[in-house]
Amino acid sequence: MKRTILAGLMAGASLFAATGANAVEIEYWQYVFETRVNAMDKLIANFEAANPDITVKQVTFPYADYQTRVVAATMAKKGPDVMQLFYGWTDQFVKGKVIQPLDAGVFPHDKIEAEFFPIVSAMKRGEDYYGLPTAVRSLALFYNKKLFEEAGIAEPPKTLDEMVEAAKKIAKTDAAGNFEVEGITLDMAGQDHHWWREILVRQFGGAPYSDDGSKVAYNDAAGEKALAFYTGLQTSEKVGLSGFMDEGQAAFRAGRAGMTIDGTFRLGAFREITDFEWGVAELPASADGVQSNYASYFANAIGSGASGEELEAAQKFLAYISSEEAMTLWLEEVGELPARRAAALTEANLANPVTAPFLKGLDYAHTTRFVEENAQRQITTDMVNRVLLQGQSPADSVAEAATAEQALLDKFAQ
Asked: 348 Cβ partners below 8 Å, 6+ apart?
């Protein structure tokens, strides 16, 4: 008869014994991101120490290859027992039978909904949850305190207008007009596509999609204004350059950007910076005080091929890596916020000048329900490039992007 996990398991407090005399080996897959891999190594070590009859093998792949490798391995019936996936891939992975629904007897829905932040609902399809996050992300403005001081700026900007003025004071070019220091990074392939979609569009009075996510809604004056503002940072304000030092985070780490918009996952890497002190602030509001943010996460799910002893071990491991203990370690190692309210909303976290802006951002954040996150990101990247590289008007480029993305949404709905 199928064994169920004690109720306390969801908090990582109670663990059941694996079946059989021999150790059960399961595989955990995630993409390569150094701080994440290191954090998972520590979680695996903790888990194996408490569960000597289970061995967890971590397997990693480059981000660009990760989805393809997971799908191919699943088709060959050699997929992982537990895997990491971006919440925006859920529909693709469910449709492709890559992951299986979580057993409600092991992971009770009422506990999930009571203990996790509401954005966990993005992992629910119908009556089933297909995964749980260890951490959640929001965006914030990272700023270089050294460059701010040199430019005579006393505090981080609170509005978009203040952000532009600060960026102008910081930006430096050589005699030929080439950037030496950006006022703010421009990186649509990074987190800027979220900044434009869920934040700028809303701050200019619109919404990116219909309430059910099935229709593109940014093909209007708000979408045009949001794109004009974003591309204008390069074309008219001249405070940043798309492609400068390849990635926005690289320019910031090198001390050659005054500001960058990035997520909590970047904290671990930025802590390695020794050449200057940096700070974190909430994203700038619009001129009339509208605040918005984007919340997301990578969840952990059980592979569709897991069964028997491997399934029980996978459930046990998933319960541990989504426990408060695991989330606290993940925050320390990676910088991402705990997905459980109790682990995230502590006095220490709310008083911490680094984590507090991200936590505050969760209060007014939106979560995009992607159908193909990579394709949708590329559509917005192409939209910006048509303005910056081809001179297309923001209105025409927004319209072209909206047509392309609506076709993608319609195709997935078929």
From this structure: none
